[in-house]
Design goal:
- It is a single chain.
- The longest helix is centred in the C-terminal third of the chain and has 27 residues.
- 38% of the residues lie in helices and 0% in strands.
- The relative contact order is 0.10.
């Protein structure tokens, strides 16, 4: 006899085709080997973003302190901490050495002294000596000696003329000339002692 037809859903399920599955290499939506949430990933590494955020107690990579944490290299003070000019200072007053200052004073004070001793005509002698002895080696002495020499040459000539004429006239003009030579010679010497060149008034430039 033939077997009567069976109602739907009954009988051997193996006669029916399997239910369609989702496409992909795995029969289910989630691969069987997918790591659970929070579980380490492949090779034992935690998933991305699983590292704790760095704290402020940890130094930067390499073990170096942050920028700005070092003292000045070598322990030296910062620039500007040293006294100006260093521990040594040059000779004051604008002279390279004491010898230049001495010859400058000789030119000025010597001119005044020569005018006093000779009553005028020999006021140029001391500046001339200073110029010849030191003027070629020191520009400072040369400047002082030339200033005194030009002044004293002019007034030495005037003193000589008036001294010659005064033998027949009064001595007052000669006295006035000598006073001018002495006065301005002393003033120039005081300025030279301070290291300041002095410009003689009422002078001429005979030597350059």
């Amino acid at each position: 006899m033939t077997e009567p037809p069976r109602p739907p859903g009954s009988g051997d399920p193996g006669n029916y085709p399997p239910e369609p599955t989702s496409p992909g290499p795995y029969p289910s939506a989630e691969p069987p080997t997918a790591p659970l949430s929070g579980a380490p990933g492949p090779a034992g590494y935690p998933p991305a973003g699983g590292y704790p955020p760095p704290t402020g107690d940890q130094p930067p990579s390499g073990g170096y302190p942050p920028a700005g944490g070092y003292p000045p290299p070598g322990g030296y003070p910062p620039p500007g901490g040293y006294p100006p000019g260093g521990a040594y200072g040059g000779p004051g007053g604008g002279y390279a050495n004491n010898e230049d200052k001495t010859w400058a004073l000789v030119a000025h004070f010597g001119g005044a002294l020569g005018a006093l001793v000779s009553f005028g005509p020999l006021g140029f002698v001391a500046p001339l000596i200073a110029y010849l002895a030191r003027g070629q080696q020191s520009p400072t002495v040369r400047a002082h000696a030339l200033a005194a020499l030009n002044f004293q040459i002019l007034w030495s000539i005037i003193a000589f003329v008036l001294l010659f004429v005064s033998w027949c006239l009064l001595f007052l003009p000669s006295i006035a000339v000598v006073v001018i030579q002495i006065l301005f010679g002393i003033i120039a010497g005081m300025k030279a002692n301070e290291g300041t060149p002095y410009r003689y008034p009422m002078t001429a430039t005979f030597i350059k």
